[in-house]
Amino acid sequence: MTAENLTSGRIQIAMGLQDVVVDESKICFIDGKLPKLLYYGYNILELAENCSYEEIVHLLLKGKLPTKAELAAISKELIEARGLPADVLDTIRKAPKSSIPMDVLRTAVSQLALTDPKPNDDTPEGRYRKAIRLTALFPEIVAADYRARRGLDAVKNNPRLGHAANFMWLLHGKEAGPFVVKTMDVALVLHAEHSFNASTFTARVIAATLSDMYSAVTGAIGALKGPLHGGANEGVIKTLLEIGDASKVEPWILEKTKDKGFRLMGFGHRVYKALDPRAVVLKKYSEKSGKEAGITKWFEMSVKIEEMMKTREKPLYPNVDFYSASTYYTMGLPPEIFTPIFAVSRVAGWCAHVIEQQSHNRLIRPDCAYTGAMDVPFVPIDKR
Ligand code: COA
């Protein structure tokens, strides 16, 4: 397409692909105005309160909520797929302490392909096996990196513990209490899937070239890292720490929002034009978590910010990253691990989309309006 098409109005650019429908999907429905979020037709509010992450993995990979027997089976598969290969653990240990945890995760996940005897097996069974393997190993990578940065050895998995509880065990080397485990489980359920968001779309673009699941998930991690996507939860806690106190929220917001280019992390969304339902749930957990830990200030500050942002001329509402930040922080988790936790959850959604993409594949290859020079006379190098 040339610029002429653009100026003549024959084509229109959909910057950021906003409102462009690129495929069908059965996995996730979002109505940003209501707002409503469904995984395979089930409302996220019900799933968050009633399901474990393992049930959601079953739902995303198999398209149905499991029976008790099916849940036991997939939980066993996830436990059996645990055990980080020694080479990957070594890479994590040797990563510079100055590196960003999302970079370590991306590198380790890419290396998982080298420790899989059949990384390119794209039979349905092969894709499912890789999805389970990736989902099982993400917590181990994140926890091993978390501990290595603190001069601690990785902890062995605890086969008695489910996904969320084992993740907390791997981080701290001891069993977390039931409230902390439930909070992590809810967070994992809430972050597991979100339709054609930037990282999932990245995974689908890679999958659509008929590349393998490790490549697709590695690329997705790169997309999730950005502060406009999963990286926003780290931005939120940095904001809260910078403000420091509930009494300073109002002057801080008023000062910052004078700058038209200012972006408040954890607010706004491409699809939701009202409160993100995931934020509704996380707000409750942020409050409970604060009370449980005896530190309510981060929740109180967050509520003040929310109130200010929704009453301004152009209201903005919290997204999933806003209340997850204060929730994780009061659970004693450091900011640099927030985006990796998002990835620990979203990996199941990415894998589900890779499987769906490859089940009815067409190469994803959009066009652009070319605005560069045309037919430039070639000049040999010694005459330039
Ligand atoms: N802070 C301040 N203003 C914001 C904002 C935010 N977090 N999010 C959106 N806006 C404003 C923009 O300045 C723009 O205003 P304008 O119309 O006066 O120019 C308008 O809202 C639309 O923003 P736009 O960037 O076009 O929306 P988008 O759909 O492209 O962006 C996000 C969506 C998520 C990238 C954007 O809301 C954002 O940057 N949020 C902060 C990062 C974040 O929390 N990301 C996690 C998403 S789950």
Q: How would you explain this protein's 3D organization?
A:
This protein is mainly α and 384 residues long. Helix content is 55%, strand content 3%. The chain has 17 helices and three strands. β1 (28-31) and β2 form a beta hairpin. α2 (44-50) packs antiparallel against α9 and α12 (232-243) packs across α16. The longest helix is centred in the middle third of the chain and has 25 residues, at 124-148. It is globular. It binds coenzyme A.
Structural class: mainly alpha
| Helix percent band | 55-70%
CATH homologous superfamily of the largest domain?
A: Citrate Synthase, domain 1
Radius of gyration: 22 Å
Beta-strand share of residues: under 5%
Which tags fit this structure?
mainly alpha; Citrate Synthase, domain 1; Cytochrome p450-Terp, domain 2; 2 domains; 3-stranded antiparallel beta sheet; 17 helices; binds coenzyme A
Which helices and strands occur, and which strands form pairs?
Blueprint: H1 3-7, E1 28-31, E2 36-39, E3 42-43, H2 44-50, H3 53-62, H4 68-80, H5 86-94, H6 101-112, H7 124-148, H8 163-172, H9 178-191, H10 198-208, H11 213-225, H12 232-243, H13 249-256, H14 277-293, H15 297-310, H16 320-330, H17 338-359
Antiparallel strand pairs: 1-2, 2-3
Helix pairs in contact: 2-9, 3-4, 3-17, 5-6, 5-7, 6-7, 6-11, 7-8, 7-17, 8-9, 9-14, 9-16, 9-17, 10-11, 10-17, 11-17, 12-16, 14-15, 14-16
Bound molecules: coenzyme A (COA).
